[in-house]
């Protein structure tokens, strides 16, 4: 508590040193159509006027200050403005762009009210002012990072996972199936603001099978407010899929592409939108055929046996995946204040991986035997989710503040995973002579995840500077896993019946009930904003093995406070202090005590007695002109959930299980800044330097691993004119540690090229992912009696060509960004 108070005091002191009550003003207004109807989702641009009259047929030299989007009442606000002369322009697809007359901002407690901006349906092309409003791929704010995926050239034709790998501060480790943010493990991955309730391995598989052309944005939030689930000790990655951008009567786009690395890839997507009357209808279907390869190597050294033994394993797998994703939705506006929406999303993946693992066994540096395992892995993934959302505003704008609002969400989701694996192992001499019968095993798994959730959020402005929010959420999750393992020994060509392996056959169920309530308060003063919140979550879990008839139950109640204090100095400097407490509950697969075999020398076994881990996260951030950000973070985690390796020296087999370490600390310094080299070349680069330290006792041996690491990201955009543009994205991750794993550095370089065709009705994109093929994972484990090194990499160097065609009346008013409950939720995220 002492250090928290010191931090707050320093923040206050720094703000007052930079400005002794710096003067600032504000301006507000509305946007209407020709009938006087308020227009929402209008793009507003505030510029500091260079002269009083725009010059015809050329771009103005006004200096950009801020941007905003009008709300459902057509209202916009620009705050914290220095005295001066300004102009506001309003633009919306299908409407003429208009600008206000120049006006002067003076300091004062009340915002200056401008005359309504009236924009009319487009009848001709305006020539006197050019507005460029496309968002960059990486958008940095003081409280979060936004990846505008649909604006990225290097993301076209890829997967959501490939886009995430290019995000600042994000490390996707495919070897240990982890996602980390600024060096912190246990990130909560959400789809459209809703938890997936899947293991990290299943989330990676889901993202690997989600085409990037179905993703609109990816948000990276390190300190969410009390309004959001407390899960995710490292923060939240929210993947927002594309919603409708409908027009009346009909519009849409067609997206087709092909790629090649070692194997061919194909993708296609169709989007259709319409807005008849009070309805807003939207739909999307995407198909993706992805063929690629994967390689894994492991060298295991056994030094405790009579003779030093080396086991060298090499695995190669060609993989085929076909993916179908679809989204169907409708919004109905009963009135300007009441909207009801429904949304249906689905995913189907059919995959097959055929390959083999060769294990060469050396004793005293002499090859003594060989094991060769051929495997055939078929996989089906199905996911169906439905959502009903309701929004009602009880009254209109009150004294310049937002009115009372009620949001209700009801969700139902059913996910199915059905992998079927078959292994055949042959035992050979160094001369490739087969010895003894072959060992065969087949595994048939059926896993389901059933999710039911409902929540309500209520916003109540007490006055124009104070807002109170409260709400509740209840979720009930049922996860089941049914594994049938059969084995047999047979000579080549011999017919032998399969035998059920009862020691590995398993039926496991996990149930989770979470009831949560929260309250947040937000208060603004000139130059200051304070938001405090408290969330209470009661959790009940039940992990049951039907095979052993054993059950582990837990019930606990936790409080999760959060504090956000923001100091604004003029219109250029912003400071923020943030604190939040968060939780990570063990994934159900981590609790399953039965065995999952990876290869003849490695298997995984869960721990039903795992406890949740808790993190206290502190952050101090600074933003300059809402573009350049610097932040310092300190995070302390107790009962850290990690996977560890345990080796049997007699057999050489490694068991991977999960335990709670006593604590982990993470300290990070993060910098993100834009840079414009020329009129046609701009960039945004980010650096995250972090120190991770693990402290625990593992089987009586101290585990004290720590390391200073860094993540660097640089994204460059080139606009050459005549509809031609290019993009370059580079990332570098220095060596880092995770539990017992010591990982080497890796990175990637990707490039993209785009040409607009037919008056921007069509776009042709070419990109080359991982141009230097450096996205490879190398690491080692040297702990207790274990000494092994590993490497994992796959077909990441891929060239793709994508063609996008927009059809229909794309210049009519769009309703596709209609706010649903979850959309409002995202915009309020801290």
TrEMBL record:
List the subcellular locations. Answer: Cell outer membrane
Q: Report the residue ranges that make up the Outer membrane protein beta-barrel domain in this protein.
A: 402-805
Give the Gene3D superfamilies listed for this entry.
Answer: Carboxypeptidase-like, regulatory domain, TonB-dependent receptor, beta-barrel domain, TonB-dependent receptor, plug domain
The alphabetized UniProt keywords are: Cell outer membrane, Membrane, Receptor, Signal
Taxonomic superkingdom:
Bacteria
Q: Which InterPro entries match?
A: Beta-barrel_TonB_sf, CarboxyPept-like_regulatory, OMP_b-brl_3, Plug_dom_sf
One GO cellular component from the entry? cell outer membrane
Q: Which SUPFAM superfamilies match?
A: Carboxypeptidase regulatory domain-like, Porins
List the signal peptide residues. Answer: 1-19
Q: Which PANTHER family match?
A: PLUG DOMAIN-CONTAINING PROTEIN (PTHR40980), TONB-DEPENDENT RECEPTOR-LIKE BETA-BARREL DOMAIN-CONTAINING PROTEIN (PTHR40980:SF4)
Output this protein's name: TonB-dependent receptor
Q: Which organism is it from?
A: Fibrisoma montanum
């Amino acid at each position: 508590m002492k250090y928290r108070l010191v931090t707050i005091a320093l923040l206050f002191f720094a703000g007052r040193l930079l400005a002794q009550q710096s003067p600032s003003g504000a301006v507000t207004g509305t946007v209407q159509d020709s009938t006087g109807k308020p227009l929402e989702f209008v793009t507003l641009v505030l510029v500091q006027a260079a002269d009083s009259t725009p010059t015809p047929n050329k771009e103005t030299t006004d200096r950009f200050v801020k941007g905003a989007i009008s709300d459902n009442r057509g209202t916009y606000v620009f705050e914290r403005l220095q005295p001066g002369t300004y102009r506001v322009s309003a633009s919306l697809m299908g409407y003429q762009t208009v600008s206000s007359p120049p006006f002067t901002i003076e300091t004062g407690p009340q915002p200056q009210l401008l005359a309504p901006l009236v924009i009319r349906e487009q009848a001709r092309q305006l020539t006197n002012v050019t507005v460029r409003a496309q968002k960059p791929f990486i958008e940095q704010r003081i409280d979060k990072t936004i990846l505008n995926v649909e604006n990225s050239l290097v993301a076209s034709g890829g997967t959501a996972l490939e886009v995430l790998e290019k995000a600042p501060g994000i490390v996707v480790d495919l070897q240990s199936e982890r996602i980390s943010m600024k060096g912190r493990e246990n990130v909560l991955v959400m789809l459209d603001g809703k938890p997936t309730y899947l293991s990290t391995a299943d989330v990676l598989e889901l993202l690997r099978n989600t085409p990037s052309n179905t993703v609109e944005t990816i948000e990276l939030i390190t300190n969410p407010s009390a309004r959001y689930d407390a899960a995710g000790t490292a923060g939240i990655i929210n993947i927002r899929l594309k919603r409708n951008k409908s027009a009346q009567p009909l519009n849409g786009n067609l997206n087709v592409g092909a790629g090649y690395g070692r194997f061919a890839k194909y993708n296609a997507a169709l989007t259709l939108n319409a807005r008849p009357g009070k309805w807003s209808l939207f739909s999307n279907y995407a198909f993706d055929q992805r063929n690629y390869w994967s390689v894994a190597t492991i060298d295991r050294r056994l030094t405790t046996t009579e003779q030093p033994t080396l086991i060298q394993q090499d695995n190669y797998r060609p993989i085929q995946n076909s993916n179908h994703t679809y989204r169907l939705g409708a919004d109905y506006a009963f009135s300007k204040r009441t909207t009801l929406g429904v949304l249906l999303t689905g995913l189907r993946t059919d995959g097959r991986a055929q390959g083999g693992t060769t294990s060469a066994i050396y004793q005293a540096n002499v090859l003594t035997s060989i094991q060769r395992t051929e495997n055939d892995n078929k996989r089906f993934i199905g996911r169906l989710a439905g959502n009903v959302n309701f929004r009602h505003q009880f009254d209109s704008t009150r004294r310049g503040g937002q009115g009372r609002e009620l949001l209700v969400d009801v969700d139902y989701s059913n996910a199915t995973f059905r992998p079927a694996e078959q292994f055949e192992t042959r035992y050979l001499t160094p001369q490739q002579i087969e010895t003894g019968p072959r060992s065969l095993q087949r595994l048939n798994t059926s896993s389901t995840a059933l999710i039911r959730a409902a929540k309500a959020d209520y916003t109540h402005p007490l006055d124009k500077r104070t807002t109170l929010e409260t709400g509740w959420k209840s979720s009930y999750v049922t996860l089941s896993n049914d594994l049938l393992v059969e084995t047999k020994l047979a000579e080549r060509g011999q017919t032998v019946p399969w035998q059920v392996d009862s020691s590995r056959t398993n039926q496991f169920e996990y149930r989770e009930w979470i009831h949560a309530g929260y309250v947040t308060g937000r208060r603004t003063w000139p130059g200051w904003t304070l938001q405090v919140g408290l969330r209470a979550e009661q959790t009940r879990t039940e992990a049951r093995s039907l095979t052993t008839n054993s059950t582990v139950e837990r019930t606990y109640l936790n409080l999760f406070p959060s504090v956000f204090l923001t100091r604004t100095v003029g219109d250029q400097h912003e400071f923020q202090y943030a604190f939040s407490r968060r939780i990570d509950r063990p994934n159900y697969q981590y609790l399953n005590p039965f065995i999952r075999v990876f290869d003849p020398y490695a298997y995984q076994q869960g721990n039903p007695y795992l406890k949740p881990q808790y993190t206290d996260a502190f952050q101090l951030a600074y933003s300059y002109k809402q573009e350049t950000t610097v932040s310092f973070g300190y995070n302390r985690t107790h009962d850290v959930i990690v996977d560890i390796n345990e080796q049997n020296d007699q057999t050489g087999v490694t068991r991977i299980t999960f335990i709670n370490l006593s604590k982990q600390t993470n300290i990070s310094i993060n910098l993100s800044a834009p840079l414009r080299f020329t009129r046609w070349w701009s960039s945004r680069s980010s650096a995250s330097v972090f120190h991770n330290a693990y402290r625990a006792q593992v089987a009586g041996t101290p585990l004290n691993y720590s390391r200073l690491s860094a993540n660097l990201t640089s994204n460059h955009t080139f606009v050459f004119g005549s509809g031609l543009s290019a993009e370059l994205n580079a990332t570098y991750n220095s060596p880092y540690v995770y539990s017992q794993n010591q990982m080497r550095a890796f990175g990637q370089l990707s490039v993209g090229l785009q040409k607009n065709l037919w008056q921007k009705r069509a776009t042709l994109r070419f990109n080359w992912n991982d141009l230097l093929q450096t996205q490879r994972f190398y690491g080692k484990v040297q702990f207790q009696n274990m000494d092994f090194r590993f490497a994992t990499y796959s077909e990441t160097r891929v060239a793709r060509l994508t063609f996008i065609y927009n059809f229909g009346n794309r210049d009519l008013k769009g309703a596709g960004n209609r706010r649903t409950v979850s959309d409002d939720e995202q915009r309020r995220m801290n």
